[in-house]
Amino acid sequence: MKLTRDQRGLMSSGAVWALYEAFNAGFLVVFAIALGASNTVVGILAALPSLAMVLFELPGAKLVEYLRRKTVFVLGTGLSRLMWVLIILTPYLFKEHTLWFVGGFFFLVRCLEYTADPAWSSWAADLVPDRVRGTFWGYRNMLVGFCGMVASLIGGAFLDLFPKENYTGFAILFGIGMALGLLSTFIQSRVREPEYRDHDHHGFREFFRVDGQFREYCWIMVIFYFGVNLASPFFTAYMLENLGLSYTYFVIIGAIATVARILAHPHFGYVSDRYGDKPIAVISLLGTALVPLAFIFVTKQMLWLIVPMQILSGIAWAGHDLSTWNLLLDLTRKDKRALQVAEFNFLTSIPMIVSPIIGGLLADHASIALLAGIPLVFAIATVVRAIPALLLLRIHEARVGAEYPLGEVFAHVCTIHPFHGMQSAIKIVVKRVRREFDHMHLPYPMKGREPQFRPEKA
How many domains does the chain have? Predict the structure, then answer.
């Protein structure tokens, strides 16, 4: 796939953003645990980004009506990344109620970040044609995942150089991440902004007027993200406290999932371009539901189980990343995309505010039958995540214009096609040879007889 200059910029900014996110937000819960956070406090910290999204997605969408998307993005992300200075200084300036100040400053970071989100979403969507959307975002997600994995490994090994009660390692790590975040903003600012038609002034009521398949998709994902945030914040606490992993082993375990995610992205991109986004979403959401269930059986004595569980997690979330994003673009109108993306993020963030707090309270105080603490939260999250996967069957597949049997698509998801890379390589060689013949003004000997590669029949 040949990329334009703007698409390369979109790739590069995403790669650097992944380094920033891994160094900073990726280690925030670890930082909080080092400061003495309980499961309830971890749940509150996990809820703050969703609260910020609920409060600031609408203002971000409204700003696009008055300002260029690039302006909104640069101001929002630039200021948010500078705010990490306050988090870095918190343990040294605020000896009492340190966790509350960390949470408050992190909340401000996310508020500014999500103000820029509708602008970036519609801007990025305009840069990628529909016909190659699955492939492009598959490779971009792969690049983002790889960079995030490398940063996590470096960060975990770096933090293990310092005593756990010493915050200097976190300060240095967050400082480097902040610089990388600002670099990502600069790279994205160099990308061309296509002409955008949504400068109509949308009223407050219009923001809450969600209809058609888009409305159904929103409510399905509301349920799913409730289940996601019910359990997700506590995987870190479970591995560090229940399983007793060091920072280095913790990030290595995370890297296993990231590698699986990276390797799966291009394959999901190929399958989604051929079979559509809905079946991939159904399969991947069911896969994410199995992850917390499987973690219930991971103990210090059965620690090896965490490896296949992380592989499953990486593959499932790769499919989720690609398919749910493409479905959102399929179901939104181009001339109202910033507004509708803000609507989607607003609605799906509401349960993500409540669910981690509920999860933290359950982990600290509840027990049902033989389950208690974090394993109980994992069991409940499994059920809640599985329900939306079945409800997605009601959504119409828009991008490929056809509905394929779920079993057929699942078979292709589970099948590795080793000849695709070879076929692509042969095509590239043929094109280069032909270009050389054209450059020398010689007749191409195979004109009209180039090798043709067609997808295998189902």
Answer: 2
pLDDT over threshold 70, residue 423: no
Helix (H) or strand (E) holding 372: strand 371-372
Cβ-contact 79, 360 below 8 angstroms = no
68 and 125 part of one domain:
yes
Contacts of 380 (CB under 8 A, 6+ apart): 230, 231, 362
Res 21 pLDDT > 60 = yes
What pLDDT is stored for residue 442 in this prediction?
47
Q: Are residues 111 and 226 in the same domain?
A: yes
pLDDT of 399 strictly over 90: no
- Does 418 reside within a domain? no
Nearest to 31 by CA among 177, 231, 150, 168: 168
* pLDDT value at residue 84: 95
Which is higher by pLDDT, 407 or 205? 407
Indicate the average pLDDT of the chain. 81
Helix (H) / strand (E) containing 265:
helix 247-275
235 and 264 both lie in a single domain: yes
CATH of the domain at 361: 1.20.1250.20
Kindly tell me if the per-residue pLDDT of 240 is higher than 60: yes
Q: Could you tell me if 179 and 271 lie in one domain?
A: yes
* Alpha-carbon separation of residue 254 from 171, 277, 309, 375, 450 (angstroms): 22, 26, 11, 19, 45
251 and 236 Cβ atoms separated by less than 8 Å: no
Q: Is residue 419 part of a domain?
A: no
* 385 part of a folded domain: yes
Q: Which residue has the higher pLDDT, 133 or 107?
A: 107
Report the distance separating Cα 226 and Cα 58, nearest Å.
21
Tell me, what's the pLDDT at 418? 43
User: Coil, helix or strand for 46?
Assistant: helix
Domain enclosing residue 56, as ranges: 5-192+203-413
d(CA 191, CA 187): 7
